[in-house]
Amino acid sequence: MSSTSGQTSAQIVGVSFGIISKDEIKKLSVLNVETWKTFDELSHPREGGLCDSAFGPAKRDEMCATCGLSEFDCCGHYGHINLSLPVFNPFLIKQLFQVLKMCCFECHHLLFSPTDLEIKIAQMEALSRGLDIILEDLQAFGSSLTTDNIGLDAVSIRLYVRQKLKEKIDEEYNKRFTKSVKNGLNVKNIVEKQQMVYKEFLTGKLLKPNKKCLQCAALKNSLTVLNNALIIMNESKSKASKKIIGADQIEDMAVMDMTAVRVGYLITGLGAHKLIDAKPLDQLIPVDEFLPVMYDKHTDDMMKHHFPVRNLRALSVYPLLIYPTHYVGDNHYISDTEDSHKTELNANSLHPKHTEL
Ligand SMILES: [Zn+2]
Ligand SMILES: [Zn+2]
Question: Which structural domain, as residue segments, surrounds residue 123?
């Protein structure tokens, strides 16, 4: 048989990995997980939960609801969870943050000079063609190009520089590589250099972004990452004003203080751990007092004294994410905290007996 003769029609020369898109995830998924409850009261897997039989058999005698195979033959299936708010991929947030720091938020161009940018793109192109030894030559050649006499806009300068660099790469390629050498390239060395160039580009070592956009003259915004989950932009006009990148429905945000009226809280996992670490159940105070204590804006030193580590970070957003149905003074307004009476501290109230609770 021809298939046993060892002949192959193609040879694998490389493998590359990427991130699958939202649409691809949905195509691979056999189930949209909609309930956080995995098991029912009798400890059976709930339909639509994380142990749904669509993902594969959970027990020995069961069959997979997707492929119909047993525990031994089914290799398991993917599902997905629809998130109610957009979130950054935690594996990519650092790289995304670096790229955003190089962008103009007004016209969305990169904050580099057209020539510098084209030189770096040409160096990447040279590497992909195996020309790892001409990176410095390209830098020198590109920098020596005179673009003054072009006298046109940044796009025309880029096209001119790009063309000249391309000609240089083609010339070097034809000069250095015969057919036999092309097959014997030091791929490992080239891949290492490519990774180094990408890394240095992302960390800003290769090129420093300009403080002012060359296209539209807008000033560069300063960005910060919060808890590896949010990217926040300080608006250039006022330092107090901030914006969450990616959350278009939020127009404005500010660091919380004690005077702000709070109607609801959204808390990150890290924030929840900070609150638990403060052991609030050992010394109960109302939540509207506890949170300002923990983000260190409470004005009552006695309360603060009981919680020595106050490292919570709190931000307020506008427009509000949730709205109260009734405000103080409205008919049918009920509050768990506003109407409560302060209990004086004494020996008995500090150590109540269970019968008194
Ligand atoms: Zn299966
Ligand atoms: Zn711009």
Answer: 112-202
| Whether 44 and 120 share a structural domain | no
Ligand nearest to the CA of residue 30, numbered in listed order: 1
Q: pTM for the full model?
A: 0.62
12 part of a folded domain: no
Q: At what angle do helices 135-144 and 114-128 cross, to 10 degrees?
A: 150
Written as one string, the DSSP assignment of 136-155 is HHHHHHHHH---GGG-S-HH
Residue 179 resides in a domain: yes
Separation of 84 CA from ligand 1 center, angstroms?
28
Expressed in angstroms and rounded, the spacing between residue 211 Cα and the centre of ligand 2 is: 11
Q: How far is the CA of 138 from the centre of ligand 2 (A)?
A: 27
User: Which CATH number characterizes residue 30's domain?
Assistant: 4.10.860.120
Per-residue pLDDT at 308 exceeds 90 = yes
Using the 3D structure, point to which of 42, 66, 82 is the last residue of a domain: 82
User: What is the C-alpha separation between 102 and 97, in angstroms, rounded?
Assistant: 9
pLDDT digits (tens, 9 = 90+) for 157-201: 888 889 999 999 999 888 877 655 555 566 777 888 888 888 888
- Would the pLDDT of 239 be above 60? no
How many domains, the chain? 3
Distance 220 CA to ligand 2 centre (A): 9
| 211 falls within a domain | no
* DSSP secondary structure, 52-106, as one string: -GGG--SSTT---TTT---TTT------B---SS----TTTHHHHHHHHHTB-TT
Q: Is residue 333 part of a domain?
A: yes
Query: Considering every ligand atom, which ligand is closest to the CA of 214?
Result: 2
The verdict on 130 and 64 lying in the same domain is no
Go through the chain and tell me how many residues it has: 357
- The pLDDT-based confidence of 79 (bands split at 50, 70, 90) is very high
Separation of CA 257 and ligand 2 centre (Å):
34
